[in-house]
Amino acid sequence: MSSSHTETVVEVTMPQMGVSVAEGTIVAWRKHPGDWVEADETVCDITTDKIDTEIPSPASGRLVEILVEENRTVTVGTPLARIDTGAHPGEPHAAESNGHETVEKAEKPDRSHVISPVVRRVAAEHDIDLTQVTGTGVGGRIRKKDVLAFIETGEMKERPLHTESPYRPEPHPANGERRTALSPMRRQIAEHMLRSRRTAAHVTTFAEVDMSRVIARRAALKEQFAARGVPLTYLAFVARATVSVLQDQPVLNASIDGDDLVHHDDVNLGIAVALEDGLIVPVIPKAQRLSLEGIAAAIGDLSTRARSKQLASEDVQGGTFTITNPGQFGTTLATPIINQPQVAILDLEAVVKRAVVLEGPGGDSIAIRPMVNLCLSFDHRALDGAEAARFLGAVKARLEQWADDV
Q1: CA–CA separation, 234 vs 217, rounded Å?
Q2: Residues 35, 172, 380, 404: which is the catalytic one?
Q3: What's the pLDDT tens digit per position in 284-293?
Q4: Phi/psi at 396 (5° precision)
Q5: In this predicted structure, which of 90-104, 250-264, 268-282, 286-300 has the lowest mean pLDDT?
Q6: Catalytic residue at 5?
Q7: CA gap 46, 274 in Å, rounded
Q8: How many angstroms separate the CA atoms of 326 and 272, rounded?
Q9: Closest Cα to residue 89, out of 64, 66, 60, 65?
Q10: Model-level pTM?
Q11: Which residue among the candidates 192, 384, 404, 405 is catalytic per the annotation?
Q12: Sheet harboring 73-75: ordered strands across?
């Protein structure tokens, strides 16, 4: 480096892309040693089990060293490159001052040989020869969606009987059991869940909600929203009601940092999205600014991009409260684990018809109503049961007395 400045080095690291992402693979370097990089400019492309994304530079400066070469898979937090923030755009860098020749790099290098762990796993499960699959990623890289499209189009060719598959299942032991190692994603989920259970004083409280008014309003709005490309789900109604109540009861829109309870002005709402072999929690930033339609559109967009691995790193950061929705699979009761360092998580279960007792001026009666269980797990270190109950009761009231101004 030139001696005309003091070298101050910052590192580019493999980011945390959601609680269950443990590692990422370098797909391509956009910048190379000696290149000038502006803050937030893309320095490399990475792929994980859940996201294909770009890594931005944390500061302006000259890239002085690449620490992880292309195609390598490294854990979250691993330093990827070093940037000298004390450099200046006009000064010569080491390669220039030493008279080295600059090698012009190909604009579109061949990346077809770059195979991520998740692609290998899907190929192995379906006994697919990856040489038959056309990659649509950077430089022809084969992505998970390419393998799935290959399966759906029925293009799989039968292999000759004498050809052995490189993907061989483990033999079954005599007792009929089979062992498979936990994937990096499952190991990361397990570690995060255990850490949350060890850290927080978990308590779960429940409320049964009559969804009659929500269902009626959804029926009235569904076609209008669909015409504008917005899917209207029960989750959108629950999310909008939750955001409204969080503004009135901000103790639940908080996180614990050491001995401090940090209250957040904005409701950055995390929405848990189930994937093929795990889950991810993309975030709707400043959700308090959105209408019902705005929240429904955001949920639809994040869910679609999560399942197609098109989320960016900023999509999975900064959440202040989380909603999970296992009810879409038919479950009716759960005790969700808090997404650390948040202090609460709301679980939406399936809407089912039940016989309920109604009070009226003429006495009690029995009716069939669409009911749902809302399950709130909260950290007893941050709030008491009365505060959690008031919050859940307020969400219940908003849903049962639905008005378009919530």
Answers
A1: 10
A2: 380
A3: 999 999 999 9
A4: -60, -45
A5: 90-104
A6: no
A7: 22
A8: 9
A9: 60
A10: 0.68
A11: 384
A12: 52-56, 42-47, 23-29, 73-75
Q: Per residue in 176-193, pLDDT tens? A: 788 888 777 777 788 888
Please, are residues 127 and 139 in contact by the beta-carbon 8 Å criterion? no
Of 237, 323, 217, the C-alpha closest to 279 is: 323
Is 202 noted as a catalytic residue in this protein? no
Find all residues with CB under 8 Å of 36, minimum gap 6, and list them: 61, 62, 63, 87, 89
- A 10 A CB-CB count for 208 gives 13
What average pLDDT is seen over the chain?
85
Distances from the Cα of 40 to the Cα of 10, 86, 166, 207, 326, angstroms? 13, 17, 41, 45, 36
Cβ–Cβ < 8 Å for 111, 141:
yes
Put residue 216 in one of left, alpha, beta given phi > 0 → left and psi -120 to 50 → alpha.
alpha
What is the distance, to the nearest Å, from the Cα of residue 292 to the centroid of all Cα atoms in its chain? 22
Backbone angles phi, psi at 39, to 5 degrees: -55, 135
> Of 220, 250, 234, whose CA–CA distance to 295 is shortest?
234
Answer for the pair 76, 192: CB distance below 8 angstroms, yes or no: no
